[in-house]
Amino acid sequence: MPWIDNGKKFPYTEKECIINLVKIKNDKFQSCLEHFFQRKEIENVYINKEDIIVIGFIGLGNMATAIIGGLLKKKLVAPGEIIGTDKLPEAVKKATDTYGIVTAESNGEVAQKADFLFLAVKPQFFGDVISEIKDLVDEDTVVISIAAGKTMASIEEMFGRKIKLVRCMPNTPALVLEGCTAVVQGELVSDGEMEYVKKLLVSFGTVSEVDEKMIDVVVGVSGSSPAYVFMFIEAMADAAVLAGMPRKQAYEMAGQAVLGSAKLLLETGKHPGELKDMVCSPAGTTIEAVKVLEETGFRAAVMNAVDVCIEKSRNM
Question: Least buried of 8, 72, 134, 170, by fewest C-beta within 10 Å?
C-alpha cells in the first residue's frame, strides 16, 4: 500500500521504491525515494538521497546466501538493494523466498546493475561466467571473487582489462555468522571501497587483510579446515557411541567441546600448547590420550593435510 506522510500521498511503498530503483535504475521513483531517505527509517545503509548501492551476486549457493543472510541480519542493506541470479531455478527461488532479494534473468543483468559484484560460482565455471559479463561490467564496479585457485591476474586476464577487483576466501561457518574471511585489495580499488567491502564481509564473521601470496595458505588453514574439524568431531563422537553414548548427545558434546576450546584460545590469547597443558594432569586420562595421538602421527597428519590443500589451491 502507498504511504501518507504530512498529508502527502506517495504512490509506492518504501520497499517498491528500493526494489524498482534497483531493477531499472530509473528516476521514476526518485522523488518518492528521496522522501523515504529523509525520514531515515533505515540506518547504517551505504546510500544517500541521490543514489543507492546495489550488491550483486552471480551464484546463489551456500556461500552467497550466507553472505546475504549476514548483510540482512546486520541491516547493512535492505533486501531490495541485493540482486542475484543462479543457473539453478531452485536456488533462485530459495533466495527469493528466504531473503526477499531482487532476482535477475541473466548474469549480464546482475553485472550491469551491481555496484559491488560477488562472483560466487565454482572456479571451474569462472571462464564461462566472465566471458558472458566482461563487456557489461562498468569500470566503477567493484568485483569480489570468492573462488579458490583463481588469482587476481588470471581473473583480469579473463576480463581482458584491469578492473576494480577484490579477492576473498570465506569459509562455511559464515552460514552461522562465524566465518573467517581473508581479503586482498586490488590496485584499482580505493581505500574507501575496500573499507565498504570489509564492512560487508564482517557481517558474517571476522575479516583479515592479507597479501595475495597468502591466499592459498588461507585455503588450507581456514577455507577447507572446517572439513578437518568436522572429521575430528565425528571421530570423537564415534568413540563415545562405541562406549555407549547416544549419537545425538555425542555430537552435541563433541561439537561444544570444540566450540568452547576455540573460544578459549581466541579470548585468552594463550598458546594452544599452554592450554593443552592446562588439561593434562600428571598421570591422568588426558595425557594418556595425548600420548596416543602423538604416537599415531596426529600432528603430522593435520600438517600434511593442510600442506596438500595449499598445493592443490596453488595448482588450480
Answer: 8
Give the side-chain half-sphere CA count within 13 A for 95: 30
pLDDT value, residue 314: 87
CA distances from residue 165 to 33, 185, 188, 189, 202 in whole angstroms, order as listed: 30, 7, 7, 7, 18
Exposed / middle / buried, residue 53 (Cβ in 10 Å: 0-12, 13-18, 19+): middle
**Is residue 255 very low, low, confident or very high in pLDDT (cuts 50, 70, 90)?**
very high
Close Cβ partners of 103 (under 8 Å, ≥ 6 residues apart): 83, 84, 85, 92, 95, 96
* Mean pLDDT (the chain, rounded): 86
Provide the grid cell at 304. 600434511
Beta bridge partners of 164: 142
The H-or-E segment that residue 239 falls in is helix 225-242
**Which domains occur in the chain, in start order?**
1-41 (no CATH), 54-212 (3.40.50.720), 223-314 (1.10.3730.10)
CB 274 within 8 A of CB 267: no
The secondary structure element, H or E, covering residue 68 is helix 62-73
Q: Return the minimum-mean-pLDDT range out of 34-43, 195-204, 296-305.
A: 34-43
pLDDT at 9 over 90: no
pTM above threshold 0.90: no
What's residue 286's pLDDT? 97
Give dist(CA 225, CA 214) in Å, integer. Answer: 16
Residue 51 — pLDDT band, cuts 50, 70, 90? low
Question: How many residues belong to the chain?
Answer: 316
Show the 3-state SS of 177-228. CCEEEEEEECCCCCHHHHHHHHHHHHHHEEEEECCHHHHHHHHHHHHCHHHH
| Dist. CA 256–CA 311, nearest whole Å | 31
